[in-house]
Amino acid sequence: MTLESSTLPRSRLLLVGEATWTTPFADALETESGATVRAVSTGARALEAIRTRRPDAVVTTHRLPESSGVDLARSIRDHDSTLPVIVATAYGSEAVASDAVAAGVSDYVCLDPDDDPVPKLLDRIGSTLEKAIETARRERARHDRARQFDAIFHDARTATWVLDADGSVDRMNGTARELSRARITSGTAAADGPGEAAETADGPLWDLPRWADADHVREDVRGVVETALDGGFGRAVVIHEPDGDDRAVIELSARPVTDDRGELISVVVEGVDVTDHADVERDLRRSEELHRVTLNNMTDTVLITDEDGEYTYVCPNVHFIFGYTAEEIRELGTIDDLLGEDLFDREALAAEGVLKNIECTVKDEAGREHTLLVNVREVSIQDGTLLYSCRDITKRKQRERALATLQETAREFLYAGTDAEIARRVTADAPDVLGLDAGAVYRFEPDANVLRPIAYSAGMREVHGPPSPVDADGETLVGHAFVEDERLFLDDVHADDRLADRSTDLRSAAFIPLGENGVFVVGTTAVGAFDEVTRELADLLAATAEAAFDRIDREERLREQDRELQRRNDRLTALNRINETIREVDGALVRAETREEIEHAVCELLTGDDRFRFAWIGSAEAAGGSLTPRAWAGTGRGYLDEQSVPVTVGDGEPAGRTAATGEVTVIGNVPGGLREEEWRKAAVSRDYLSAISVPLVYNELTYGVLTVYAGEREAFSGMIREVFTELGETIASAMGAIERKNALVTTSTTRVEFAVDDPSFLLSRLARDASCTVAYQGGARQTEKGSYVFVDVDGTAVEAVAAVARELLVVESVREINATEAGGVLRLRLSRPFLAQELADHGVVFHSASATPSSTSVVVDVPEGVDVSRIGRLLEETFEGTRLVSKRTRDRTAEDDLHSRFLGELTDRQLEVIQTAYYAGFFESPRERSGEEIAETLDVSSSAFYQHARAVQRKLFSALFDDRNADVVEST
Question: Which of 41, 227, 381, 386 is the most buried (most CB within 10 A)?
Answer without folding.
Answer: 386
